Amino acid sequence: MGKTIVVYGSSTGTCEAIAEKIAEKVGAKAINVTDLNDAVLAENDNLLIGTSTWGAGELQDDWYDGVDLLKGASLAGKVVAVYGCGDSASYSDTFCSAMKELYDAAKAGGATLVGEVEIDGYTFDDSDAVVDNKFVGLALDDINEDDRTESRIDAWLEQIKGSLK
After folding, report:
1. Domain harbouring 140, CATH code
2. The pLDDT value given to residue 15
3. How far lies 62's CA from each of 58, 59, 67, 147, in Å?
């Protein structure tokens, strides 16, 4: 497998902890999006990018500059998979919606996107991150469904490993 980086934006530490779990499982480093720059993008073939979702579906604050970086970068030849954290009970109508912003930014940069996840088994009302009845990436609710986090991560990594460079 080519060089892989796991990038996260986290306000409470939940998304950071998930990023570290993912990084450990793929043998990669996890970094905060505030440390993401052109050099990091250039030296990695695979980007696993994640955010938490806030309020009415907003992106985690640290990601705003990161989204601009992804949109402006040449990600052609890079493989990107998105993951996100949300609260399906308290924010059922915007569950993990911020993942869509990361997905769109990577797509605008020309990346190959992988890792869509079926919505079966999730309890929520709506999400901008659902396209054609699939999440654009791995949706996690480590608040209300923490007992499913590990198995969802493992299934997602198994799904995407053949697509990573």
Report:
1. 3.40.50.360
2. 97
3. 11, 8, 9, 27
